[in-house]
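ok so for the tutorial part 2 we go from a plain amino acid sequence to predicted C-alpha cells. step 1 is just haveing the sequence, like this:
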Amino acid sequence: MGNPEERWYVPQPYDSRQRRGLEAWLFGLWEKSMELLARRVMQRIYSAHFGSSRYPSFEHIRQRVALALNNHHSLSEGPIAPLLPSMLDIGGILLEQLPALELSAHPKRPFILFSLGTRYSWRSASGAALQQIFVHVFAQFPNYDIYWTYDGNNGSAISAAYTHIKLAKWWPQAQLLSLPHARLFITHGGKGSLTEALYFGHTPVLGLPFNGEQRANLGKAQAKGWALMFDKRQLTTDQLLCGMQRVLSERSFKQHIQTAARIYKDRPLNASQLTVYWLEYILRYKGALQLSGTARELPLYEFYLLDVRLFIYSMLIILIFMLFWLDKRSE
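step 2 — the prediction. this is what the C-alpha cells look like for a chain of 331 residues:
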C-alpha cells in the first residue's frame, strides 16, 4: 500500500511495548523477512489457482490494491500512526447489527461470561487442572450467573452441584456482552473477544493469554485500566479469586471501559457507512490509485534511503580517515 512504517516511534499493533534504536531495526528486519516468506507462499497459492495467462501476475495485483479495510480503531486501540487514505479503520463493523438474543437465552440477573476461545479444550491435561481452580472460585460467586464455554467431561457434575454455573460448547458471546447486566468477561485476549468487550463497554476483562499477540492485546487493555491479566500456567485459586473480586468491586475498571467504548464509537460515520462510502469512491474513480502513496513503487533501498545513508556514512569515514592522515603528517 505504500504506507509509511515509522517504527522508531510507533509500536506495532501486536507488540506490547515500544522498541527503539538497534532493537527496532532488528525487529523490523525480522518482520520484513517473515513478510517475504509469506509473500512466497501467497505467490504459490495464487499461481496454483490463477496461473494461466488470462490473469494478471501476483505482483501486478499487489501493486494495484486500492483499499485496505482494517478491523481496528487506532484512536482507542492504538497505536497512533501516519495512515494513507487507502488504509481504512473499520473496527466494530461486525457488531453494528447483531441478531437479537432469543428470549429463552436472555440472562435474568447479573452474569459473568467465561470463554478461552474455540481452540482451547477442557479435556486436555492442562484444562483439567485449570478447571478445578475455576470451579472452586466460581462456587464463591452464587449471586452471579456464570456462562462458561465448556467442552469437558464433567459438565453434568458441575451443573448439578452449582446451578448458577451454565455450561455450553458455545454461547452467543457478542450478544451476551451487549447486555447491560454483564459484569465481567474472562477471556484469552483474542482480538475479536477484546473488540466485542470494548465496543459494548459493559464488561471489564480478566485475561489469561496463550501467546504473544494475546499477551500484547491484554497488556494494552490493562495499561488503559479496563483489564487485569494473569499467567494461566501459574494461576492459583487465590489469584483468580482476588482478581475477580477486584474487577467486580473497583469502579475504575467499569469507568475506564465505558470511556474507551465511547471513544471507540465516536466517529463522524459508523464503520458500515464509512466502508460503503469508500468502496463506492473506488468504483467511481476506477481503482482510485490516487489514495495510495508512491512508496510502494520504490525499491527497498530507496524506501529506507539506504543509498543516501551509504553516501553520508562513506563521506564521514573518508573525512575521519583524512583527519587521521593529516594528524600523522603533522607529527
